[in-house]
Design a protein that fits this description.
Elements lengths: L1 H5 L3 E6 L2 E6 L1 H30 L6 H14 L8 H8 L8 H32 L14 H13 L21 H12 L5 H32 L5 H10 L11 E4 L10 H21 L25 E4 L6 E4 L5 E6 L2 E6 L1 E2 L2 E2 L2 H13 L25 H8 L3 H11 L4 E4 L11 H14 L11 E5 L5 E5 L6 H19 L19 E2 L10 H13 L1 E8 L4 H6 L4 H17 L5 E6 L8 E5 L3 H11 L5 H19 L5 H14 L4 H7 L5 E5 L21 E3 L7 E8 L3 E9 L6 H17 L1
Parallel strand pairs: 6-10, 10-11, 15-17, 17-19
Antiparallel strand pairs: 1-2, 3-12, 3-18, 4-5, 6-7, 7-13, 8-9, 11-12, 14-20, 15-16, 19-20
């Protein structure tokens, strides 16, 4: 109870002599400093709003406009063409004011209006510039004069140092493609997968849809696009993620791994201290908008940063029909899980972020705590990993048993925390007698763990293993993998290269020994909550997942580029060749592409199994070696990727048309069939976004392993890959064991196909 007494600023007791008041000056000082930090954040937000509000100009530009107007008036010229005089007549000024003051004030009002008009004009021009996407389709080395002029203008507008969200209001809205174009591209994408009779049937369905229901649905969609910031994103978040009633573990959440060869420290508490510090430093940059806006690699073209807003202090709250994303403005603590116990760990004291050494000290207290879990506490996290509705509704359980008393307070501590931390009791990583199997077990541990030792509803959970290895598991509804990958890159680099460790593996810095002990969360969980039922569902799902992680070191993007082929296209074609050799045919292939060139953009599907890629694979299998076919397939893939990025994709448009049809209560055989087609090969690239943080020449062992996800189809593969440097590609493959799609098979096929394709 000593910590509780320290938190009380004053106490009083009533005695016969009167009231005995006892002040705790230390507690009052803590309250004062915490209040100062809060006000500093408010002032910083107000300052940033002003800077963003006038972007691409600067607040100081008002002074130049005002001085220019006053200077011209001093030279007996009226730049306003009579507007200053009219403003002068309508100003409610006292007659006692002098004529010169009267005129100057009118001139300042006019200068302000002119300045605001110029800002709106500049913003409109920037929006027009960012709406130009033809630059993506220019051939390498053959840039048109229009694109050259456009590049110059974009650089001119980007000369100011923008804040994280400065470009948001200047980003264009996602356009609605013409329905005829979408249907034409869809039919082209399924042609290599269908027999002639099947293709004719699908063509008839598409034509019937276009001539009847399609145009009606399109009109509603265009109306929404005029009103909404992004006609896809809100429906995508709600219907694909939040309304999903199956387990989000494995099916939705994804993971990120630590360095492949290096573990910066073997001390678990120290690794936790630096990792938590790095994450909170990143949050500070996000809150202050000090992060540079993400851009298309190698260009000045900004990408939407809206997904960063809900990165921290966010949780997915269960509902009966749909979940809700809850975000809090700030949180000064993290939730920690260790050996079945939950703790609330304050990471700020008197408005000051604890040092890495202090956080390590607090983490060590949790590791050394001998208290056992309370009844029902150890496996409580299984409520977030099981079905959202079908078996034991998490929403119903939450409302019935966690809406009041100690359970509500403890649950609030987890949900309102900055993020969730698991201090795992196992060792993970590649080291050991079985490095291949160890990597696979490492991936499975991050993807689902024990099904109850992660809080899958949190925006992300950090896992620190007993041997110092780390990783994270991220909830998918609030953001896509590139946003989390950017955070994780910064965390790994800051941990290893900036914060560092002492020679004995501990964090640097001093420790305030008066820090209160981490607060143990208290629960009163009745047996009726039936956590075991949710755990059984989650365990069945986890046991059915096969994961395989393998680094490919024979060559990387450097050698692929020498063949004048896009590395991503090369990998995608090789994956299709591997699937063809493994399963004896082609399948609908999903590759994730971003649409963050547009405001609130998320993802689009690249249907990378094309007529051109299939033609090359068939020729290769028949013994015909034609480099021209490979290059044609590569160019087709690049074009599909560019179209998806620039708003001319297929699947998000058809998805939104389907949502409109459901709102109108009408059925479409075409849309129903299209949206039920399985993605048996689901792929995604995780590019390294901040190469400047990793010096691979001087520190070649600090190689990122990337991350992965579970299989999308029960009878398919999930493949994630990351191109690291010039000479390495890391793969993460997942599948369902019951489907007999074995990940090791696809590994051997991928490696085989890489070498086969490269020979030609």
């Amino acid at each position: 109870m000593a910590e509780a007494h320290q938190a009380v600023a004053f106490q009083f007791t009533i005695t016969p002599e009167g009231i005995d008041l006892q002040l705790s000056y230390q507690a009052l000082n803590l309250i004062y400093r915490s209040g100062v930090r809060s006000w500093k954040k408010r002032v910083s937000r107000m300052r940033n709003r002003v800077i963003k509000g006038v972007f691409p100009a600067s607040p100081s530009s008002w002074l130049f406009v005002a001085i220019g107007i006053l200077a011209t008036m001093y030279m007996q010229s009226d730049p306003s063409m009579g507007l200053i005089s009219k403003i002068q007549q309508h100003l409610p000024l006292s007659q006692t004011k002098g004529w010169k003051q009267f005129t100057m004030l009118s001139a300042l009002v006019f200068s302000t209006l002119l300045w605001l008009s110029l800002i709106l004009a500049l913003r409109f021009c920037l929006k027009l510039l960012l709406s130009y996407h033809q630059w993506m389709f220019e051939q390498h080395g053959r840039i048109s004069n229009t694109t050259k002029i456009w590049v110059t203008l974009v650089r001119l507008f980007s000369s100011q140092k923008p804040l994280l969200y400065s470009y948001q209001t200047s980003l264009p809205h996602l356009p609605v493609p013409a329905i005829k174009d979408t249907l034409s591209r869809y039919l082209e994408s399924v042609r290599p997968l269908l027999e002639d009779t099947q293709y004719k049937r699908m063509t008839d369905l598409a034509n019937q849809f276009e001539s009847n229901l399609g145009n009606r649905l399109q009109r509603y969609l265009k109306l929404k696009a005029l009103w909404a910031t992004n006609y896809v994103s809100d429906w995508w978040e709600e219907y694909i993620y939040l309304r999903s009633r199956g387990p989000i573990m494995v099916n939705s959440n994804y993971y990120g791994m630590d360095f492949l060869y290096v573990t910066p420290t073997p001390v678990q508490a120290a690794r936790a201290g630096n990792t938590v510090t790095a994450l909170l430093l990143y949050r500070r940059k996000v809150n202050r908008e000090e992060l540079k806006p993400s851009r298309v690699p190698g260009t000045d073209i900004p990408l939407c940063a809206a997904q960063c807003e809900r990165m921290f202090n966010t949780t997915r709250t269960p509902g009966v029909e749909t979940d809700v994303l809850q975000h809090w403005q700030d949180s000064e603590f993290v939730a920690v899980y260790h050996r079945g116990r939950y703790f609330k760990l304050w990471v700020y004291r008197a408005g000051r972020l604890l040092s890495p050494r202090e956080i390590e000290h607090q983490m060590q207290k949790i590791l050394d705590d001998p208290s056992p879990p309370l009844p029902g506490e150890e496996k409580l996290g299984a409520l977030t990993s099981g079905d959202r509705y079908q078996v034991i509704p998490w929403a119903q359980t939450r409302k019935q048993y966690f809406s009041s008393g100690v359970n509500k307070r403890s649950l609030d501590a987890i949900e309102r925390s900055a993020f969730f931390v698991t201090l795992d009791t196992e060792d993970q990583g590649m080291e050991g007698d079985d490095p291949v199997g160890n990597l696979d077990r490492y991936a499975k541990s991050l993807l689902h763990g024990k099904c109850y030792d992660r809080w899958f509803d949190k925006s992300f959970s950090i896992v620190i293993y007993k041997n110092g290895k780390s990783g994270l598991n991220a909830e998918h509804s609030w953001a896509d993998a590139p946003t989390v990958a950017h955070l994780w890159e910064y965390t790994l680099a800051t941990d290893a290269f900036q914060l560092g460790y002492t020679e004995d593996g501990h964090c640097r810095g001093e420790v305030d020994r008066s820090l209160p002990h981490p607060q143990r969360l208290v629960w009163d969980i009745p047996s009726e909550t039936q956590v075991s039922s949710s755990l059984a569902v989650a365990q069945t799902l986890a046991d059915d997942v096969d994961c395989h992680v393998f680094p490919f070191r024979e060559f990387g993007k450097g050698r692929i580029k020498k063949c004048r082929i896009s590395p991503d296209a090369f990998i995608q074609i090789s994956l299709q060749l591997a699937y063809f050799r493994d399963r004896g045919g082609f399948c609908l292939t999903y590759e994730a592409s971003m649409t963050r060139l547009f405001r609130e953009g998320r993802t689009e599907t690249v249907r990378s199994c094309s007529n051109e890629s299939c033609a090359f694979i068939r020729a290769l299998e028949d013994g015909e070696v034609r480099m021209q076919l490979l290059r044609r397939a590569s160019e087709k893939h690049q074009n599909l990727y560019r179209m998806a990025m620039t708003g001319a994709g297929i699947d998000r448009h058809l998805f939104c048309l389907y949502v409109v049809s459901k709102y109108l209560g009408v059925e479409s055989a075409f849309l129903k069939e299209v949206l039920s087609e399985p993605w048996r090969l689901s792929t995604s690239q995780t590019p390294v976004q901040q190469m400047e943080l990793f010096d691979l020449k001087n520190h070649p062992d600090f190689v990122s392993l990337g991350g992965g996800f579970g299989p999308v189809a029960d009878d398919g593969y999930g493949v994630s890959y990351i191109i690291v440097g010039e000479d390495m590609i890391n793969f993460h493959v997942s599948s369902k064991i019951t489907s007999h799609f074995i990940c090791v098979n696809i590994k051997s096929r991928v490696c085989e196909c890489f070498l086969w394709v490269l020979k030609f």
